[in-house]
Amino acid sequence: MESILALVVGIGLAASCGFRVFAPLLVASAATHAGYLDVAQGFDWLGTWTATIAFAVAAAVEIGAFYIPWLDNLLDSIASPAAVIAGVVLFAAVAVDIDPFLKWSLAIIAGGGSAAIVQGGTVLTRAASTGTTAGLANFAVSTIETVAGFLFSLMAIAVPVLTLILLVALVAAMYYLSRRVLRKLLARQGTDGSP
């Protein structure tokens, strides 16, 4: 039962990487350092002061960069593979007492996959925001993504099953609403005769 709970925590942390790459790493590092999160052998570095400080600096830079209008869309292309890698690492870090082959297989599939799905939802949301408001609402989108990255990371450690349920519902809503907005934008572009 404890291994299954660790896998759910791993999925929650990995999925949170789709909102902000370094926020879940920072939360996991601080939680490991404080003794609230157990990590697998070989991932003890996650709970060191060096890792916590490095992730704090990286998170601050990432958060700030997403508030620069043209840079936010560019960062999405860099953040997508980085989120997947961070998701794989975080999933593997919390998957304690699991056979190494199974751990890394699940880390790639469940950890990387959940990070990619959430990151895809944020990319669609930002595209819909840029298309409908010429980027003016991207500030609000960035703020929501940052809060979600930290909030879901904390919740993944404290209430993992509830976090997983909420993440599935949130991602489904992001995809549904973003696709709907983008479809309307494309239809409007086609009726205007614009290229």
Report on the structure:
- The chain is mainly alpha-helical and 195 residues long.
- The chain has one domain (2-192).
- The protein is built from seven helices and no strands.
- The chain has helices spanning 2-16, 22-34, 49-65, 69-94, 100-133, 138-158, 160-192.
Arithmetic mean pLDDT: 90
Determine the oligomeric state from the structure: single chain
Give the ordered list of helices and strands.
HHHHHHH
Q: What share of the residues does DSSP label as strand, in percent?
A: under 5%
Number of DSSP helical runs: 7
Give the SSE map.
Blueprint: H1 2-16, H2 22-34, H3 49-65, H4 69-94, H5 100-133, H6 138-158, H7 160-192
Tags for this model:
single chain; 195 residues; globular
In short:
The protein is mostly helical.
